[in-house]
Recover the amino acids of this structure.
């Protein structure tokens, strides 16, 4: 089965004030099927709007083209003013691989888009990052140097002939940069100063490029150059970080404005901490920060865990709590509300109806199970009971991490809690997956069977769906079995006052394993793949027996402690 390809596109338009213009540009996204508009983030001081969309590659580049075309119609660059460097109505339009697609493939789509923009819209286009046609053009800031005002002359130079489109500046639309890159986080850190010069000093400390070296380290001293005449530089603290300082009148404060071009190299929280340290050394204080546009969930999860570890607190808590810690630690809500559902890419991509069962209240789930519908049934309930079982074990780990007098052991229990959270999340995902697998069998059985060809297709579909309806509860068994390691360690080493919680967790896990095993067995009756059945029967029987054994062992440990 072909893997679904998803890319993100984040075009930056040189309009952040006129809401009607912004709306008309963003509205182009909804005219293309298969593309989802995730975010529209205008900035008045920068006079710039960042639009974020995701979807299948061909659909995304069609939507991006329509947005670029509309921006060229509505934005007159000869009249544009703004704090942010810019060279075109659509200043930059990066494509980012999200899933099922390589960077090289994404770059090919970037070239398809650029060729069309150059030919159909008469706009000069430069390729950057992974789509660059030469190493000299990989850096956006190098391409954009001189900005719109300087490009009429720059574009005439042979070395700055556009990759696509005319070698002449489009007076109204300017020039555009299109490329493929990793996810970039546009991140601004707020300072308790109105001085742009002081904000710049922090930016120079932090950004990879650093600052120009001067004699006696005097800001007014003569520039020190190398043998080729190029200025020497003092590198900044953080690699893969670009940054400048600026003053934002609407906020009444100065910011360090950064582009984090590779958050695997320098995560957001490390850039934040670097700003905190630099500001403190220069007599200033960081008061908060803001994310422009959207960011991947991992950036906030990593940040939340970083700050929890600094506090010597367990990181094995819910995703929601970890993100809350990240938001508060970096003051992401200082300038306005920070809504994770609107700012995190993965949350915005989620289909609200994709996992209906785990989104229900406890009462609603029980009522749905008790209804006359055959799904959810024993498979989904088994997965949910298993999730409850490991949740109890995780609770004991977190209580132990925070137990008075056990401070030295917080990291030990935090690791167990992390493991428990992972198992819990996987089991919760299987709650809805079991019902989907059952529905797939029903769908296959309802396929037409009026002739031999249709009968063969229907039979094959039923067999494939049945096999998957066995694999899902089997996954519930295997995942639940992992829970015993966490629970047994917690009843042996965890908070003594919570050992019975661990015992209940083990009973839940055994119920999950035995229930899922029965669910797998009942679905095997119509399966014709004997080799598949044999392997499942052998391994499943062993797991069911081992589960009963482990559950009894844990119960005995707890009874002895009592």
């Amino acid at each position: 089965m072909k893997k679904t390809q998803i890319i993100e596109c984040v075009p930056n338009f040189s309009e952040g004030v006129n809401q009607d213009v912004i709306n008309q540009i963003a509205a182009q996204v909804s005219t293309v099927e298969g593309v989802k508009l995730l975010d529209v983030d205008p900035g008045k001081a920068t006079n710039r709007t960042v639009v974020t969309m995701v979807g299948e590659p061909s659909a995304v580049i069609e939507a991006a083209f329509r947005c670029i075309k509309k921006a060229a119609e509505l934005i007159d660059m000869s009249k544009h003013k703004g704090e942010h460097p810019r060279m075109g109505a659509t200043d930059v339009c990066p494509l980012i691989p999200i899933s099922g697609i390589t960077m090289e493939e994404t770059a090919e789509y970037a070239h398809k888009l650029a060729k069309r923009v150059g030919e159909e819209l008469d706009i000069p286009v430069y390729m950057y990052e992974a789509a660059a046609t030469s190493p000299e053009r990989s850096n956006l800031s190098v391409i954009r140097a001189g900005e719109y005002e300087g490009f009429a002359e720059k574009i005439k130079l042979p070395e700055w002939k556009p990759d696509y489109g005319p070698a002449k500046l489009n007076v109204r639309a300017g020039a555009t940069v299109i490329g493929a890159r990793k996810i970039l986080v546009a991140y601004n850190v707020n300072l308790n100063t109105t001085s742009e010069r002081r904000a710049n000093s922090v930016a120079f400390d932090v950004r990879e490029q650093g600052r120009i070296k001067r004699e006696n380290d005097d800001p007014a001293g003569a520039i020190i150059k190398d043998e080729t005449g190029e200025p020497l530089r003092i590198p900044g603290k953080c690699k893969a970080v670009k940054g400048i300082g600026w003053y934002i009148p609407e906020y009444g404060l100065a910011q360090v404005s950064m582009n984090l071009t590779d958050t695997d190299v320098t995560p957001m929280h490390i850039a934040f901490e670097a700003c905190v340290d630099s500001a403190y050394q220069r007599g200033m204080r960081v008061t908060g920060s803001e994310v422009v546009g959207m960011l991947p969930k991992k950036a906030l999860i990593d940040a939340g865990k970083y700050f929890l570890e600094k506090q010597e607190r367990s990181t094995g808590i819910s995703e929601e709590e970890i993100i809350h810690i990240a938001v508060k630690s970096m003051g992401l809500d200082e300038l306005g509300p920070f809504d994770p559902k609107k700012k995190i890419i993965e949350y915005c991509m989620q289909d609200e109806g994709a996992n209906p069962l785990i989104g229900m209240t406890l009462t609603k789930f029980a009522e749905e199970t008790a209804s006359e519908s055959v799904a959810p049934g024993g498979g989904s309930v088994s997965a949910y009971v298993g999730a409850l079982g490991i949740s109890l074990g995780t609770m004991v780990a977190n209580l132990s991490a925070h137990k008075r007098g056990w401070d030295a052991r917080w990291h030990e229990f935090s690791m167990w809690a992390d493991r428990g959270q992972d198992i819990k999340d996987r089991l919760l995902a299987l709650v809805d997956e079991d019902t989907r697998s059952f529905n797939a069998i029903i769908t296959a059985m309802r396929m037409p069977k009026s002739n031999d060809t249709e009968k063969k297709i229907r039979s094959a579909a039923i067999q494939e769906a049945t096999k998957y309806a066995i694999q899902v509860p089997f996954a519930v068994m295997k995942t639940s079995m992992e829970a015993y390691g966490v629970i047994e360690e917690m009843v042996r080493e965890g908070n003594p006052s919570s050992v019975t919680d661990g015992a209940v967790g083990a009973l839940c896990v055994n119920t999950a394993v035995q229930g899922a095993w029965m669910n797998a067995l009942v679905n095997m009756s119509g399966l014709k793949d004997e080799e598949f059945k044999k392997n499942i029967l052998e391994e499943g029987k062993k797991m069911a027996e081992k589960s009963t054994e482990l559950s009894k062992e844990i119960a005995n440990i707890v009874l002895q402690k009592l």
Q: What stands out?
A: The mean pLDDT is 94. DSSP finds 17 helices and 13 strands in the chain.
